[in-house]
Structure formats: structure tokens, C-alpha cells
Amino acid sequence: MSEKVGSKKVSISKMFVYALLAIATFLSIFPLYWMFVMATNHNSAINSVPPAFIPGAELVTNFVKVIETIDFFGAIWNSLIVSTVTTIGVLFLCSLAGFAFAKFEFKGKNILFIFILVTMMIPPQLGLIPQYFIITKLDWLNDLKAIIVPGLIDAFGIFWMRQYISSNVPDELVDAAKIDGCTNFRVYWNIAVPVIIPAFATLAIIRFMYIWNDFLWPLVVLREESSFTIQVALRGLIDNYVRDNGMILSGTFWATVPLIIVFLLLNRLFIQSLTEGAVKS
């Protein structure tokens, strides 16, 4: 009798968990679905009461309006260049720094690491003026280097890599490689890198999304339309007098597609990096 009661409690708890997961999934997907619905409907259908809840037939028409209004594909290409190059740089430099903090002993290591963590608490808006001054002196205005170079180092990336390497790369393996005559960089490249691939995937998703969605800094340093990233270019869809929500949401939806593709490509490694610690514990 007690076994039946226990099994009922387990089934009820599972149903409760599944219900919560279903609700969370719906709340996560619905904004994307709603954006797609508005991107496929005419402005009158969007502004009607109640608004349209099913996709319409204006997907191509709205996207043609986007292409005619802004240089959409040029902006997408600029964002791909900036996001890809910056993400690759962050993965290499932050993993290298994280490896040094995790496996090397040097004077002032803890103080320097605390200083890096403190920089995570400073709002990025406070660095706009000094960064803009440096970019101006380097004559990098209207150049994608003005976005790529300042984003190559990320405090969270260093912290994330340091923690992951500390828990997943054994000290004995590093010591054995050094005894065999490996240089520090070879130990990093041949020993650490193959182990931290899941951490690479997680950091790549986070950093790629951050750079892709960044609006303020590109708006400050990019002045010409040919150098606009997609977030800055989408601003051109907003008219002060006539607001075409179907066109605006069409541009926004298609600008989100590359992010979805990147997440789907790295999804398995992303989940693996998050679950490894729980499995080990």
C-alpha cells in the first residue's frame, strides 16, 4: 500500500515538473512566435483589436520593404564579421588567461584575479567616453575594428574559463606534460583545449549573442551606413511619422535567425558544459 502511495507521489511530482517545464517553454517561445506573426501580417491586422494570432501572407512583402529601406544584407555581413572575429578572439585570449590563473602560480595572482572580477561590476556605459577618445586617436571611427578590438577581452570569459579549467583539467596531467618537456603553451593547446570544448561552446554562445545584440557602442563609433551593424541598421526602419510594425518586426525577426542557428549548432556542447559539474558532484 505504501509503495502505491509513494509511486503516486512520484508521478504527481513528475507531472508538476513537466507542467512547469511546459509553461516555461511556452513563455520562452511565445515572444519569438509573436514576432513572426507580426512579421507576416499587414500593419492594419497588427493594430486591430484583437490582433492577429496566426501567421499572415505578408512575410515576403514586409521583408522586401526592409531591403528597400536599409542595407539589410550588408549590415548582417558586418555583424557576422564583428561577432565571429570577436568571439574567436575572446575564446582564445580568455581561455589562455583562464589557464594561467588556474594552473600557474605567480606573484599577485589572486589580487589580479579579484581586480578582473571587480571590473564585471562596472557598467559598460562608464567606459564610453575614454574608449571613444582612444578610438578617435587611432582613427578607427566608421571602422569595424572599433568594435572588434575593445571586445577581445571579457572579464566574465576569464572567470568562466578559470573555473572550468580548475575543475576539469587535472594538475597531475599538467605536471606530467611539463616533465615530458612540453612548453606552457603546448600544455594549454594539447592538454587543456581538448577538455574545455564544452566551455568554449557556452562562452561562444554568450559572447556571440552579446556582440550581435550590442547597439550603444556601434551607434557611437559607426557613422556611415556601409559600416552599420544590424542593430544600428534596424533603427532606420523606424519612421517619425508612419510606423510600419510589420516591416519593423520583419527586419527584427530575420536579424534574430543567425542567433538561433548559432545556438542550435552549439546546443549540445552548451548543455554538456552546464551538466558536467552536476554529474561530477
Automatic annotation (TrEMBL):
UniProt family annotation: Belongs to the binding-protein-dependent transport system permease family.
GO biological process, one term: transmembrane transport
Organism (species): Gracilibacillus salitolerans
One of the record's GO cellular component terms: plasma membrane
PANTHER family, A to Z: ABC TRANSPORTER PERMEASE PROTEIN MG189-RELATED, ABC TRANSPORTER PERMEASE PROTEIN MG189-RELATED-RELATED
Domain ABC transmembrane type-1: 76-266
Predominant localisation class: membrane
Superkingdom of the organism of origin: Bacteria
Classification lineage: Bacteria, Bacillati, Bacillota, Bacilli, Bacillales
Membrane topology designation: Multi-pass membrane protein
TM region positions: 16-36, 75-99, 111-135, 187-212, 247-266
Keywords from the named record: Cell membrane, Membrane, Transmembrane, Transmembrane helix, Transport
Subcellular location: Cell membrane
Pfam families (alphabetical): BPD_transp_1
Record protein name field: ABC transporter permease subunit
